[in-house]
Amino acid sequence: MTIKVGDEFPQVQLKYIPFDKSNPDACTNPQILDTKKDFAGKKVVLIGVPGAFSPTCSVQHLPAYVTKASEIKGKGVDKIVCVSGNDFFVMSAWGKDEGVQDKIIMAGDANGDLGRATGLSLDLSKVAMGPVRLTRFVAIIDNGKVTHLSIEPDPTDVTVTGADNVLSAL
After folding, report:
1. Bridge-partner residues for 48, per DSSP?
2. What is d(CA 17, CA 165) in angstroms, rounded to the nearest whole number?
């Protein structure tokens, strides 16, 4: 069953490599992002994408969030998290490539736990990207509760999940 507005966001543990300002090229130890613990008392924008470095994700989706991160956080958002069905090392490399720095947490859902827990998974085995990926979505989660959820009707496009849509929803 797919999560919806008003639902408690499920507890999942994702991993990410924190950005180190003193050594931006470093690949430090992965950290755990626990959606129950780390989203408690916070307003979070969670961006779900099918794959790091993919054309739609890299050209149409993530760059606007990087550019507008300050504006989004200026509307009371504590964390912006981008998650994909890739591992945390790939997500870290993609974040570095896109100039994310510490604006957005780039988390991996390589085991598909988030996709299964939210019902937002997608089977992309027909295009050789694997059977468990995230569909393209954006959620606003306030103190653990989903207050906004947009899911792309076509995950190869960005029509309802872009940064401007989130800014309008905040």
Report:
1. 83, 137
2. 27
Residue in 57, 72, 100, 139 annotated catalytic: 57
Assigned token pair, 128: 């050789």
| Predicted TM-score of the model (pTM) | 0.91
Token pair belonging to 68:
């507008």
Do 158 and 152 touch, CB atoms closer than 8 A?
Answer: yes
Active-site residue flag, 57: yes
The pLDDT tens digits along the chain (170 residues) read 799 999 999 999 999 999 877 766 667 789 999 999 999 999 999 999 987 777 666 666 799 999 999 999 999 999 999 999 889 999 999 999 999 999 999 999 988 899 999 988 765 556 545 556 688 899 999 999 999 999 988 877 788 999 999 999 99
As a whole number of angstroms, the distance between CA 17 and CA 61 comes to 21
Burial (CB < 10 A; 0-12, 13-18, 19+), residue 152, is: buried
